[in-house]
Structure prediction request, 335 residues.
Amino acid sequence: MKTFIETLPKAELHLHIEGSLEPELLFKLAKRNNISLKYKNVEELKKAYNFDSLQDFLDIYYQGAGVLLHENDFYDLTWAYLEKCAEQNVTHTEIMFDPQTHTERGVQFDAIVSGIYRATQDAEKKWGITSFLIMSFLRHLSEEDAFKTLEQSKMCREKIKAVGLDSSEKGNPPSKFKNVFKAAVEMGYIPLAHAGEEGDADYIWEALDILNIVRIDHGNNALQDPKLIEEIINRDIALTVCPLSNTALQVVKDLKDHPLKKMMDLGLKVTINSDDPAYFGGQVNKNYEDIQKALNLTKEDIYQLVKNSFNYSLLKDTEKAERIAQLAELYAQMS
Ligand code: ADE
Ligand code: ZN
Prediction:
């Protein structure tokens, strides 16, 4: 099964580039940028990666991102992630980044986007891996702040495909960002959002009906509401599920209790993703492997999940069809 998972080409649709910052690179960038850390070494830092909630994680995650200052730092961060994609047969990525985490420290908006984008272009040349960028607004900040970010993004408009919504969910419902999402859609960005990770099903309703999102990040709490499940299925919208994130942040107690298979059986379209792999104990293939073991998923289930990763990506329909045809051929040979 491990070889089966490793061999299939797959897309990753829910990945925060700041969350891919491994401790070793974090220390290297801190040294390069003369930033002092409150942890003495990698081992001490890793000990702090023990979270009891989303907020608990975010506090450390934003501190870690503080070592990113220059275009080259964003390049090195993204390149390190894309090297892992190449090793894992991830052939398409949709990478989220949080500009406000950096611009509020004085980092230039175009340094962030140029660094990430340049690495994705180099990875496409070297390995054929394609990538899209998703600019995520921090929901604990104001809508006015998100508008400033949207304005800044104009200088990099053609490098960014979609907008997202992340950070502390509870108390920051999607409706808070109604106007900025409307403006983003008018600029041609595709609307996406985290919803139902810690927030209740009504946050997912708002993300669908007020922000008009076309894909739900996490969405676990959709299971609270049968009408919502029906609506998500009718709209043919996918959930980007992140198993190891869910256990690390105690959204789910144990992988054996994870609702992924139940979601699939209900007819929901689900994909598997790593969210913040440097913090949650595994890249995307480990997410597939661990959830497969915990829920006893079949090869057919895995194939369906991988197929969904292309089908619910932001690739053009012709491109999706090509990737899925290649995948189907490989699957036929392997089963
Ligand atoms: N930012 C990075 N990871 C996140 C997550 N899992 N939920 C919300 N915001 C995030
Ligand atoms: Zn996320």
